[in-house]
Amino acid sequence: MQETSKISSIVSMFRKQDLLIRGVIITAIIFIMLLPTSLVMETLQERVSYRNEAVQSITSSWGDKQTLSGPLMLIPFYVNKEMVDIKEVVEKKEVINRVEVQKKITDKDGSIMTVPVIVDAPQIISETKAIKTPKMVEEKHYLILLPEDLNMDFIIDDEVRQYGIFPALVYQSNAKIHGQFVLPKLADEIKGFDRFVIDEIELVVGLSDTSAIKQISNLQVNEASLKFEPGSNMEQVVKTGFHTKLGEIKPFNTLTFSFDLQFNGSRSLSFLPWGRNTTVNMQSKWPHPSFTGDTLPKTRNIGDSGFSASWNIPSLARSYNQVILLGETDNTSNELATKKTTQLSQLSSFYAGVDLFEPVVTYNMVYRAIKYSILFISLTFLTCFVVERTIKRPIHYIQYMITGVAVSLFYLCLLSLSEHLSFSLSYLISAGVIVSMITLYIGAVIRDKKKAGILFSVLSVLYASLYSILNMEDFALLLGTTLLVLVTAVLMLVTKRINPIQ
């Protein structure tokens, strides 16, 4: 009898704590349901990889990220340097040395004897003398000259290209570049400066992906029109680009230049502000620019019809000078040039530009939705749990697991549909199918149409809230936090009558 009484008391205790026990088990099921969600995440990462490969295939043939640099001048110049020409001359002269030798002589008595005798021995000696002759020689050096004024105007036409089912945002840019160079007065700066070699000057322009060039005009310099040739001839600074030699133009102190350039690109367009004063204007119909680089536009206007931006960058914003000497020269002014290794590395480090930003691409939206999976599985289970407590008809744990699988299928449906339809339509179809499935399934379990209708309404509001969170980037954290607060309040309401173990 005592054993029967003990068993009855234990059963009674578990019945009193049924709410707590079911809560613990349902919580465990929620974490188990994260497994199929993680599989959906792996599938998403695989699709993102496929999409990146498709975008890479498009951009490799259309044009990659573009950075326009230049133009700059590569100028040879001569410096007169005093040298000493040393010539070695060999001189020969005869020297008489007095030496002692042994000589045999016959004495009076006829005997032979050896006696020392001093004699003169001539010797030829060779001497090498260095004859120093002063002379003046010309040393050839090079300098990089940056523009005094540099103006760039870009018109960017965006376009979406397809590779299979995967889209990629690309653009075509029409650029107009003009400005002027001013030759520095090196005679005041460099000892022995002689002259510039005007007919060997090269003007170099850099473009990161030259294979995407579609059209380029002749270079208009002063009164001449010159054609560009491929290659930069200045790979330390401009790895890829084009150049022209100014040998056909007349000697100058100031040189004005202009040319037009049309090229393709994708994702971003940047420039290097090499002018003492650099002015850049950009216009595009793309409504989502993201300005990047070391300096932002002075003015910008962004709207649904596109954006426009202007930069006005003085040379003081940079860390390198207008003239960079590539050869070692005596008495070089520090104001004119600094060491080659420092200057050349800094020429390409200071830049500005724009990314054609895609604010929320499809895969990003799906990824953000999956991040809320534990919250929505929990909310779905909580809704079912509240419904079952109001009708005193428990839902089996297996039925909870099947419901969790249905919630996980929502993300797989969303991923697969969004590759073919707009995200909004994909979300509506996926949410409608899953909410309907769960409602019909739980309604059949509890056999209460009114409660099933409440379940449908609650789930619809939850998925509508998730959609709002995904689309409101600036307020996503606020909305997500508000939703968590509401869930906590509901949990407090449901669990307020839990009795402790007696």
Automatic annotation (TrEMBL):
Source organism (scientific name): Ostreibacterium oceani
Assigned GO CC terms: plasma membrane
The keyword Lipid metabolism belongs to this UniProt entry's keyword annotation: no
Pfam families: CreD
Transmembrane segments: 20-41, 369-388, 400-418, 424-446, 453-470, 476-494
Name of protein: Inner membrane protein
Keyword Membrane: yes
Keywords: Membrane, Transmembrane, Transmembrane helix
Highest taxon of source: Bacteria
InterPro entries named in the record: Uncharacterised_IM_CreD (IPR010364)
